[in-house]
Specification:
Blueprint (H helix, E strand, L loop, with lengths): L1 E4 L5 H11 L4 E4 L10 H6 L7 E3 L5 E2 L2 H11 L10 H17 L5 H13 L11 H7 L1 H10 L5
Parallel strand pairs: 1-2
Antiparallel strand pairs: 1-3, 3-4
């Protein structure tokens, strides 16, 4: 799989979910603010011109945060990315939609905090690099994901 993502977008949450699901994937950083999502090469992959965009192993493309997050949770049920209880799942979907709706304004830290609270139901993780030791102690996968894609570390 290949995840197309951009700094300061909700795509950070998909990166965290892929790490949490322990899925093999590549990443492609897209200069969203520089207009790369409007270039013909990217539009061939995703005609919506948006990130996150996930090209799956079969070549099919998912292009919305909620769709990608839900698909990952459903194909990796053992990772418990979504609760089994119907009410709790509805609350998680509610949070997913919130993430989607606020992703353009949110910072890297906010997106990780929101994804963490909505999907992993564990303690909130710390900010990019600032609290790396604490993050590593509490959530190694999320710390690695944060370091890999946070704009401050890029």
């Amino acid at each position: 799989m290949k995840l197309y993502w951009g700094p300061h977008t909700c795509a950070i949450g998909i990166h965290v979910l892929l790490k949490e699901a322990e899925v093999a994937y590549e990443t492609a950083r897209i200069d969203v603010s520089g207009g790369a999502t409007r270039h013909s090469d990217f539009l061939k992959i995703n005609p919506k011109g948006k990130v996150p965009t996930l090209v799956r192993d079969d070549g099919s493309v998912l292009a919305e945060f909620g769709a990608i997050a839900t698909w990952l949770a459903k194909i990796h049920p053992a990772k418990k990315l979504l609760p089994i209880d119907s009410d709790a799942e509805a609350r998680s979907v509610e949070m997913l939609e919130y993430v989607e709706g606020t992703g353009r304004e949110a910072s890297c830290r906010s997106m990780i905090d929101i994804a963490d609270a909505a999907l992993f139901y564990v303690e909130r993780v710390g900010p990019c690099k600032t609290d790396q030791t604490s993050v590593e102690r509490r959530a190694p996968l999320r710390a690695n994901a944060e370091s890999a894609v946070c704009p401050q570390s890029a």
